[in-house]
Amino acid sequence: MATQPSLGAEAPISHTVSREDYEYVWPLPPRRRPPLKDYSAESLREYLATAPLDEVDIADPMYWETDTHWTFFKRLRDEAPVHFTGVNANRHRGYWSVTRWADIMAVDTNHQIFSSDAHLGGITLFDMDQDFIMPMFIAMDQPKHDVQRKAVNPIVSGSNLQAFEALIRSRTQEVLDGLPRGEEFDWVDRVSIELTSRMLATLFDFPQEHRRKLTWWSDIATADPEVPGNLQKEERQAALLGMLQEFMGLWNDRVNDPEPKGDLISMLAHNPATRNMPPMEFMGNLVLLIVGGNDTTRNSITGGLKFLNDNPAEYAKLRANHGLIEPMVSEIIRYQTPLAHMRRTALEDTILGGQHIAKGDKVVMWYASGNRDERAIENPDAFIIDRPRARQHMSFGFGIHRCVGNRLAELQLKILWEEILARFDNIEVVSEPERVPSAFVKGYKSLMVRIPA
User: Fold this and answer.
1) What are the phi and psi torsion angles at 360 (to 5°)?
2) Closest CA to 220 of 163, 294, 166
3) Structural domains counted in the chain
4) Strand ranges in 86-233 using DSSP code E only, listed in sequence order
5) Could you tell me which residues come within 8 angstroms of residue 152 by beta carbon, excluding any fewer than 6 positions away?
6) Has the keyword Cytoplasm been applied to this entry (predicted)?
7) Phi (first) and psi of residue 97, to 5 degrees
8) Distance between CA 170 and CA 400 in Å, rounded?
9) What is d(CA 332, CA 104) in angstroms, rounded to the nearest whole number?
10) 53 DSSP assignment
């Protein structure tokens, strides 16, 4: 019988460069990339199929913009399910990739060993800017996490969701009825962003006429400042401070309201656990709630349409049986996995998947890989709208950090597809989507479609 690894008397060697020994600089050192003739999707797929695992930094946005990461994740699941990446450690300090379903769940549910604390780096592969740390409840550990999360939980209570349903439906009808027929248009802009921004504005009781600001703040909060066209680090910080200032106006209007409303700002302003948050913590929670309300739904709205076009037999199955909408919504969310990863920091030495993880090591749970793990999901690379146990996916995470708004996201998608099927027999995707260059937000910048006249 093979000997199981165990923690011995000697501490495991640290893999991630410690925060104390790492020099945070901006701009980051140049990224090391493989010496390929070009970085087309075809070249990257060929490279990832055979490249030594230790030579690949799968966090490089080019793999996500080209949708070429799948082959590498399958190799990691099969050959090295808990694997350390030191390539480009001078940019991100190095990180463990956790790629199998069972190992991801083990990390996601062990809050005593694996921390989300913003001051240890937070929940994304790259640490928060050391001069701009935004604590937010998803980037907190217990007990503070629990009391802050509880402050906003009522926004997605059963009674609130019931109250939202008619509003979501009427807006969805309005947006769909306004779409052009017989001409190409961008589904992301006209439908995905439009519907999610309207919902976000409602949740915050933010002026509807300015709702696209919410989308913009969400995009810049998660955008890679190194990608051409994105705001630079200082510009990004200035924009988020502008967001804070605008929301402080709403806070001041509502904090002394003798009859608090049911919006998120009022909930935070009137709850003893969040009423006296420092400004950076208020900003952090705003970013969390805006990004959380924006990205899952928006990118699943787009992904679902693309997946049905890629799988015409499933589209035909849906047209024949509208009762499949609910399981299809879950399958869309699994297949899309709108947030590709979450990161934790080890609080103590431990063993994971046979590997020694040292205190301080950075551990990245790749949900995008776990949702395609053959050990947990049958035929996971197939998009199947009537899949048994459709809600068995990890796109919302597990444990105390499971997505607060998961039921609201599902409700929005369900209503959208009910209204689409009531109007359109077919919505045709006319070209490949333009994807977001990010290893965190797995989404779309545009998707051109046409509705037959």
Assistant:
1) 95, -15
2) 294
3) 1
4) 95-98, 114-115, 184-186
5) 264, 267, 268, 285, 289, 404
6) no
7) -100, 125
8) 33
9) 20
10) G
Question: Contact 331/308 with Cβ under 8 angstroms?
Answer: no
Whole-angstrom distance, CA of residue 22 vs CA of residue 267? 39
Q: What is the dihedral of CA 13, 16, 22, 28, to 10 degrees?
A: 150
- Of 371, 276, 272, which Cα lies nearest the Cα of 70? 371
Domain membership flag for residue 53:
no
Chunked mean pLDDT (size 10), the chain, 453 residues: 58 86 92 97 98 98 98 98 97 97 98 97 95 95 96 94 96 98 98 97 97 96 88 95 97 92 95 96 96 92 98 98 98 98 97 96 98 98 97 95 95 98 97 97 98 96
Is 65 part of a structural domain of the chain?
no
Residue type, 309: N
The one-letter amino acid code at 373 reads: D
Strand partners, 364: 97, 343
Residue 382's domain is classified under what CATH number?
A: 1.10.630.10
Instruction: Give the pairing type, strands 362-366 and 95-98.
Output: parallel
Which pTM value belongs to this model? 0.96
- CA separation for the pair 293, 400 (Å, rounded): 18
Q: Is residue 37 part of a domain?
A: no
Q: Which domain holds residue 147?
A: 75-451
Residue with the two structure tokens 């400004």: 279
Give pLDDT tens digits for 28-72: 999 999 999 999 999 999 999 999 999 999 999 999 999 999 999
How many CB atoms are located within 10 Å of the residue 254 CB? 18
